[in-house]
Design goal:
The chain is of the alpha/beta class. The chain is about 30% helix and about 25% strand. It is built from 8 helices and 15 strands. It has helices at about 5-15, 15-25, 30-40, 55-60, 90-100, 130-150, 170-175, 220-225, and strands spanning about 65, 70-75, 105, 155-160, 195-200, 200-205, 205-210, 230-235, 240-245, 250-255, 280-285, 290, 295-300, 305, 310-315. β3 (about 105), α6 and β4 (about 155-160) form a beta-alpha-beta unit. The longest helix is centred in the middle third of the chain and has 22 residues, at about 130-150. The termini are far apart.
Amino acid sequence: MISEEQFLESWNRLKSAKLVADELGVTERAVHGRRRRQEEKHGKVLPVNDQRWVYRQHIFPNKVDLGIENGTVIVFSDAHFWPGIRSTAFKALLYAIETYSPKAVICNGDAFDGAAISRHPPMGWEKLPSVIQELNACKAMLSEVSETAKQARRNVKLIWTMGNHDARFAARLASNAPQYVQTPGFKLEDHFEDWNFCWSAWITEDLIVKHRYKGGVHATHNNTVGAGTSIVTGHLHSLKVTPYADYNGNRFGVDTGTLADPYGPQFSYSEHNPLNHRSGFAMLTLKNGRLLWPELFHFWNKDEIEFRGEVIKVGGY
């Protein structure tokens, strides 16, 4: 029988239902029930510091304000970098950065896939890359992006808006080894010093970039209607621009597609069904604080990209 004093000492020290349950040898459900009874008895809320949620709450800012009134911004997403694969869209990204010298490059989530730490089981006996193999692939690819961007523009801003796959890196550790909180290297952002992490990047007050908002085939339309401003998202891999007009003028919902091959090994779970996904990324141009019609770089053929009515060879990147 666990006394009230034992329970309170354990709770006040650990402040986590999971950790208290593990220490006292009971279920989390029992701990939650005991906690509620203690709060009702004493009229006082017990402190909570469940480390499973620390990652989401305290690691980096919710938003970053860029304040870019003129110039270009390149936004890519859903690279799901995989060891040994350099997609055509990735090569085109390097070409676009070198050619158009953007003021900011935004990685709009899911650069890291986290296949080996997914909550979904593997497909049969498929061999998945380890966390360190994926991490090294991300480091290699994003180092090329950052170096190309710095050479193109000395004061370029490098922003990473977190995606749900990126969150797997720390979420697995926070859920299963919360005692290691704040240990260097246990957060994804510890490994990418060039990149500033956030949940949303506000290029202007009227143009927001974040990994995801609404879902479904009409997401780009619903995103800009719901946000009340132009909004650039990834997550759905659809690569498209949806305009929306009202008495305030035009605004846009943009999906930045996927930097990966839609039928690459990262997406084996799709069982090679037809996917309404497109490989590419977006370039945003601002003039006096207003967004011009967003432009898309789109996969045309191996080592060739389609942009502004031309087919551009990018095999040398």
